[in-house]
Amino acid sequence: MAFLKNNxxxxxxxxxxxxxxxxxxxxxxSWDFALPLRTRKLVAxxxxxxxxxxSTLLFQTLTHNPILTPSLLGFDALYVLIQxxxxxxxxxxxxxxxxxxxxxAFEVMVMMAMSVAMFRFLLTxxxxxxxxxxxxxxxxxxxxxxxxxxxARMISPDDFVxxxxxxxxxxxxxxxxxxxxxxxxxxxxxxxxxRHRFALDVLMLGRNCAISLGVPYRTLSLGIxxxxxxxxxxxxxxxxxxxxxxxxxxxxxxxxxxxMAHGERLILxxxxxxxTLIVGQAxxxxxxxxxxxxxxxxxxxxxxxxxxxxxTQYGKQRTMQ
Length: 321
Prior knowledge:
Shape: globular
Largest sheet: none
Distance between the termini: 39 Å
Oligomer: single chain
């Protein structure tokens, strides 16, 4: 038992393997039809779990705050605005018949371009003020939501229903045609992050300590923020906006991880996020017969985790005073 307690990665890996087995084999009537379909969705869950978990963990490392997520930079609101504008200018027929890969590439490029403009403006000037970056992100999020509401009032009711359908996350309608592109982007991002895992450990000590220890703070921060933007854009384009899922899996990772080294936490958060999606989807599909919605439950528990983290931080500050 002590061996298992001191090896959270092994436990998370066992849970992931069991979850994959249950998801692939439960209630199978026709193996020829079910196995390829479930395998593609399973790979999609692994990619989304990795992207959301790792992007949130990296964002918390940069901001030195365990209750922040990349959604504060306005990516979710920007995604909804892109859907609204495409439907408004292209029309229902062109929007619904648009090639999935082309639409995915356009969404990712727009979100990446916005993040590049924001990061370049804020991080390549006289200082690297992440607090100001987050504040600007919140303001942009409010702006994007306001523009989305304005566009929603200008389109027909049928178009409005389509926009609403794309405004919420859906793990049952993952576009498997985008998997190869997403897997390549995930692999490239992992190689970059893994090469800088020790520098990320130093980055947690703070900007001044990192610079004094020889870490190229500005270059590394910009590279990590670009990686976060890529992963968030990819996950959002695959399943839709997710607000609290990254926060939930990072809270679980920080709770069970034996040390703060990124070499361990990056792997663990990927396993925890993928296990949560796969086990949750297996339960909802095969036990409750799709009678519930996984994304709603995830957002509920993520919101509760967010409140608990806030109250915990507030309690610690009162104790220190």
